Amino acid sequence: MSAGQDPRFVSRLTKKTLALILAGGRGxxxxxxxxxxxxxxxxxxxxxRIIDFPLSNCINSGIRQVGVLTxxxxxxxxxxxxxxxxxxxxxxxxxxxILPAQQRIESTWYTGTADAVYQNQDIIxxxxxxxxxxxxxxxxxxxxxxxxxxxxxxxxADMTVGCIEVDLDKAKEFGVMSxxxxxxxxxxAEKPENPQPMPGNENAALASMGIYVFNTAFLxxxxxxxxxxxxxxxxxxxxxIPDVIDRYRYRxxxxxxxDPKSGKQAYWRDxxxxxxxxxxxxxxxxxxxxxxxxxxxxxxxxxxxQLPPAKFIFDDDDRRGMAVDSMVSGGCIISGAVVRxxxxxxxxxxxxxxxxxxxxxxxxxxxxxxxxxxxxVIDRGCEIPEGTVIGEDPEADAKRFHLSKGGVVLxxxxxxxxxxxxxx
Length: 424
Description:
Keywords: ATP-binding, Carbohydrate metabolism, Glycogen biosynthesis, Glycogen metabolism, Nucleotide-binding, Nucleotidyltransferase, Transferase. The chain is an alpha/beta fold.
């Protein structure tokens, strides 16, 4: 949006926009955290789930028509959406619709991100939106989509791609773009072996965020072409974007995701690995984290459990309930234990003489007495036996649990011998 742009111009655009959140992915790099839930349903930040961030961005941006496309082990995600996102008013044309794979057009399940949208084109048409905002449901960030949509309309593009700057050595994991002086995308490569650096910065590349704005008619045209293309994987990054750039080079615009105050790269995290998930959670406990969950101007909405306040009990020299440089959610009881540099989700109990350091503890975990937990991610519902030591002996940890490349120990109920059919 240009300087001085009338906010009413943006609000008119967001009212004409349908957001589609692609939330069907397994997220296999998160290992056992996605054994029984999809990646967008994974808890994050003490009380949220990953899907809450793009959904909250939509609400805060004034986009109140949202479809969530689900597929892989979606039960947990669907429950969360029903409980936490049913507050929108249908009388006002507001909704968060769940769009599961249901073979509406094809006799197959979703075979790619573009196919997921293609198979719901009848539903999308019925909403009669002028613009379609396609979002990934598995990233952590805060973004005003309204400014991106306004930039798309003002540029006269048929498609706009949200982009960020990434280090060149990490760019292999992204779709990498090259742009001209006016920001038009002239080249795109999905996860290239040798990423093209940005002009003037040989150490960084311009990467796709997996966020796209389409003129609705143009989107349908491309989806139908792709569906009729033999050997296509029906994916936006692999197929749609490269083809559109080849055919319509001067109709695809890049939108740089930057902090509106500083003009620098804005906060965005792909928490797709155990190491990245652990690090992004622990970033939040810093004095001034990049992602400020306490910013009342841009709240992150979620399903609110009715829980009592966190409680810290016992004050003996060898048995003091305390947490330092940590975030502790509602319903937690720190009973004569010490928690340092850690993030505890709701309803976690840490029992006497136990130490928890540099760890992320998901909801409903019970850690027994005399335990030492270091640099770990403990999944929901785990009951850690008395005297357990985690994070001090890599060889011993690897035999019982999952040990990441970065040395983070992931513990799930099944690894502890608990028989659970799924973990919410």
